[in-house]
Specification:
NADP-dependent oxidoreductase; Quinone Oxidoreductase, Chain A, domain 1; alpha/beta; about 300 residues; six-stranded parallel β-sheet; Rossmann fold; ADH-like_N; seven-stranded mixed β-sheet; YIM1/Zinc_Alcohol_DH_Fams; binds NADP nicotinamide-adenine-dinucleotide phosphate; 7 helices; ER; oxidoreductase activity
Length: about 300
């Protein structure tokens, strides 16, 4: 089958190549999915799991991409809950070959049914950003209606989902990002926007929840803005500073079929919009994933147009 592989960590996304790879074999409780569309997170080349397996062994050449929408083409031994021919979407294991390929082996429990009226391209854009937003706001951030949320990178893939879900839940949303992202963040439901290049972040005052996708100095300064009893949620590693009288949490998104169902339900009824930028074929994926200009929105690879 055709797949994108990486072999050299130092080369980053520039080291991606389109090659022929052996067909994936389904393990116990796996399905094989015929990939129709694949999502990719730009920082994947920095994740240890892209290069080594759970025992720390080199697993190159590895196939990146860990979210997909597609059709189940085979079942592994003992697999229940999904059937051949079913449309699915979801998250794949970080330490196994991923979704920038014509087919992938995935544990069935990592996937959810994709309704027939949701495009594969849309389906592939939801798992990582949607689940990260859901888990950060509700499981870890324990958001309550009426609370204020500072959403960094509010026009990005994760931030757009956080902004919309928090807004729907009845929170007051303050988005941040580049100057050019102001209108996009407001359109996704932010009530205020902070241009991190020109405005003073601290002028926002205290907030109940910070959702940090940037880290570094922005993350550190945000800790000081959390009100007593509030929470700083980071998806970019352990926070370098903690709220004086609140919680600091960092987490990595997990597969969750029920939450995927909640997310796709909102996409179907119009409560949630995806944030897709470029859509490219697998043949054009290397160029699309190495943009020469600033990319806005998620790049989706349409593997089976
Ligand atoms: N822990 C987890 O489970 C998990 C899950 C998903 C994602 N992540 C991580 O979360 C981060 C964001 O992912 P994403 O897919 O949402 O990326 P993305 O689509 O690139 O969104 C990030 C947004 O933040 C903006 N931004 C970044 N640094 C900024 C700065 N200093 N000032 C102003 N704006 C800034 C970006 O603008 P520019 O594009 O102009 O920089 C972009 O709009 C990545 O590091 C990713 O690895 C973690």
């Amino acid at each position: 089958m055709k797949a994108i592989v990486v072999t050299d960590q130092a080369a980053g996304t520039a080291g991606m190549t389109l090659v022929e790879r052996p067909e994936p074999e389904p393990a116990i409780n796996d399905v094989i999915v015929q990939v129709h569309a694949s999502g990719f997170v730009p920082t994947e080349m920095e994740w240890p799991s892209t290069w080594t397996d759970r025992l720390g062994r080199d697993r190159t050449p590895s196939i990146p991409g860990h979210e997909l929408a597609g059709v189940v083409s085979a079942l592994g031994y003992g697999t229940t809950g999904l059937s051949v021919g079913q449309r699915v979407f979801g998250l794949t294991d970080w330490t196994r070959d991923g979704t920038l390929a014509e087919r992938v082996a995935v544990e069935a429990r990592n996937l959810a049914p994709l309704p027939g009226d949701v495009d594969f391209t849309v389906g592939a854009s939801l798992p990582i950003s949607g689940l990260t937003a859901w888990q950060g706001l509700f499981d870890h951030g324990r958001l309550k209606a009426g609370q204020s949320v500072l959403v960094h990178g509010a026009a990005g893939a994760v931030g757009a989902m956080v902004t919309q879900l928090a807004h729907e839940f009845g929170a007051y949303v303050i988005g941040t990002g580049r100057a050019a992202d102001r209108q996009k963040a407001l359109d996704f439901g932010a009530q205020e926007f902070v241009d991190l290049g020109n405005d003073v972040l601290e002028d926002v005052g205290g907030v109940d929840l910070v959702f940090d996708v940037i880290g570094g100095d922005i993350g550190k300064r945000s800790a000081g803005m959390v009100r007593p009893g509030g929470t700083l949620v980071s998806v970019v590693g352990p926070p370098e500073a903690r709220p004086a009288d609140g919680l600091a949490i960092d987490f990595v998104v997990e597969a969750d079929r029920a939450q995927l169902g909640e997310i796709v339900r909102r996409v179907r009824d119009g409560r949630l919009r995806t944030n897709i930028g470029t859509v490219a074929t697998l043949d054009d994926a290397v160029a699309a994933l190495n943009p020469t200009e600033r990319a806005t929105g998620k790049t989706i690879i349409s593997v089976r147009p």
